[in-house]
Amino acid sequence: MVAALAYAGPPPLTLARTFTSWRFTPGVAATVAALGGGYGVGLRRRPAAAEAWPRGRTACFAAGVVVIALVGMSFLGVYDDTLFWVRAVQNIVLLMVVPMLLAMGAPLTLLRDVLPPPARTRLSRVMHSRGARVATFPLVVTVVLTLPLLVLYLSPLYEKTLRSALASAVAGLVLVVTGFIYFWTRFRIDPAPRADPYGVTLAITIVEMIGDAVLGVVLWLGPLVAAGYYTAVARDWGPSLHVDQWLGAGALWIGGDVVGLPFIGVVVARMQREDRQRAAVIDAELDERDAARAAAVPPSDDEADADRPRLWWEDDPELSQRFRRQ
């Protein structure tokens, strides 16, 4: 019985091992190569006459790809089946950090630029279809963002991801895709089916933070998740099972809120930028309208008189009548 429960996992996690513990994961490596390589090919194939691609977009997408590699092959990948809190950090990064960086890289715009005209038209038709507009309704995307972690941790699915590499990969993919849908439709750096006010996005952020808090409290106060699996691991170092789960609950709760801060910053910056662009467009339209009106209709004597600077006595009721212009 003792032999059956003997610990056979990675060595105790220390500060040094957070930097030195690595493993090669073929699936993660293939994902990194596909995303990074595809983005690079897209940059090279963009039409020469197209507008210069912002370096910040490339940097954000590259950072997202690097984070995927770190999540799967650094100490987070080595200890994700051993420590509850490590898996929690992994999941919150896959849901919040990776998709946010990828969405800031504007991959859909890059894809549109390199597609031939017929395919580009079909893509635009799908992205602006009624179904896409319904699927990206603010309430829907909020549920899409908050539901995966609730389902993962409050159902037997979590333990299945610990025991099956395939289930773990599928769960990670779902987290990244659902997170990307959220950040894509909220940032609107890429063309999106809807153009909801950014104030709605800020309200959704509050709802998402509440969802993180609910999950954190449930994991903090509730029973052990996947207790049978972690007991069988028989880890003889580090925090106890309860403390390990408390740390994970804190990572899911606080981590989601911390990631929400740069998200809010990006949304506010986008909102201010769109306000400036809208004001510039309105000003240009008004100037054009005034110029066209001035060119089409010469001003009357009354209008010319109204446009000239007024003398002080013209506002006096008696003097204005006595000295008014004939």
TrEMBL record:
The keyword Transmembrane helix applies. InterPro entries: Caa3_assmbl_CtaG-rel (IPR019108). It is a multi-pass membrane protein. It is found in: Cell membrane. Residues 291-313 are annotated as: Disordered. Keywords: Cell membrane, Membrane, Transmembrane, Transmembrane helix. The keyword Membrane applies. The chain crosses the membrane at residues 26-44, 56-79, 91-111, 132-154, 166-185, 197-226, 246-269. Pfam families: Caa3_CtaG. It comes from the Bacteria. This is Cytochrome c oxidase assembly protein. It comes from Pseudonocardia xinjiangensis.
